[in-house]
Amino acid sequence: MSNPGLHVSILGVNKQIHSEASYVLYSSNIFDFDIDVESVIPFLGDLTVPARSSIKRINITQRALPYIKDFDRAEWRNVCEFFSSKMRLEQLGLGILGGIPAMQWEAEDLYEKAAFQHITNFEGMEWVKQVASIKGLRNLDIKAHLEHCPSPQSNAMAFFVNFSASIEKGFAEYLKELMIVGIA
């Protein structure tokens, strides 16, 4: 969050102003953690319960499948659990790092919404069920952040490229149905 016109020093004037101003501060901004999911819980955990409950909009980004490490999986699981148990988000911006081959290559299979019920059981896709545990959203904005990757030479890489091509289509439809209020 960066806003050069924001003067948080006003929060220190007195308790009444702190209470009123912190609501405005936290409810009117989007908190963007990008791929730094390890900073989410320390930041939100340091806030008072009223300040934390004022936050309605957060952006986070999931790393590309081939590059997710065990500590990333643990952090992601903890953040999703924190969001679903301690937050009442209205909007989640979910960026997903994907891959597109440097040479022209078209994904052979774009995955449709229905395929993701099965795909979420694949190794490395546990994070999908974890993020889907965040319920009651009014808006879920899913964006693919595609980076160049090698042309697929394995089934795993072909899956990654096909998944990447499906992020803003079938995958987004799948998650929206699970996470947004009134869709299902």
Task: Describe, in plain words, how this protein is organized in 3D.
The protein has 184 residues and is of the alpha/beta class. The chain is 42% helix and 16% strand. The protein has seven helices and four strands, in the order H-E-H-H-E-H-E-H-H-E-H. It has a four-stranded parallel β-sheet, covered by helices on one side. Strand 2, helix 4 (70-86) and strand 3 form a beta-alpha-beta unit. Helix 4 packs parallel to helix 6 (126-132). It is elongated, with a radius of gyration of 18 Å. The relative contact order is 0.15. The model has no long low-confidence stretch (mean pLDDT 89).
Derived structural class: alpha/beta
* Number of beta strands: 4
Give helix and strand order, one letter per element, not per position: HEHHEHEHHEH
Strand % is 15-25%
Which regions have little confidence, pLDDT < 50, spanning 5+ residues?
none
Placed side by side, the strands forming the largest sheet appear as 1-2-3-4
End-to-end gap: 33 Å
Shape by Cα distribution: elongated
Radius of gyration: 18 Å
Level of helix content? 40-55%
The biggest beta sheet is recorded as: 4 strands, parallel
Contiguous helical run count? 7
